[in-house]
Specification:
5 helices, 0% strand, mainly alpha
Length: 182
Amino acid sequence: MGALSRMDGMALPRLGAVVLALLLLASCSGRQQKEAPKQDTEAKRQALVQCRRYRESLPPLVERYRETESRLKAIEEESFTPALAPLPLDPEEQRLLTIYDQQTEQEQYEQAVADWRRSEAKRRLVWRDAQQQRQEAAITERDQLADQLRTIHPALLSQAKPPSLDAAELKRFLACSTEQLR
């Protein structure tokens, strides 16, 4: 009997500890459940304030972002257009000339073609450098505008590289209603 009473004495404090732990867990989750709607409401209120603050300035910013993307695509699609090469010699005209004159004209033509090729190689390098500078400037501008848009509302742009504008999220954000904001 003595052993049984010792076990009862040990079980009672353990049972009390378990009950206390369950009560603490229940009270903590109850507090979280009560605070969650408050936090959700506060988040929606903050989103609404943010939306109203940027309602006027956001559309021009979005327009600049779209224009920059269009300009970037146009730059990427550009191609170099070479100048016209020297016209080849006319065989009918060459037949009328003496052999010495034919050789002289042929040498002059070959020199003109060589000059044209060198000139076009330089022009192509200058064009490529200018295109690359315009492209880098447009990418920098696009990235800066994307950062500004993400500062206003992160969900407006995808996280991809390059970022793309989420038109549905933009519409929801500009609606400035708590039902549409997420």
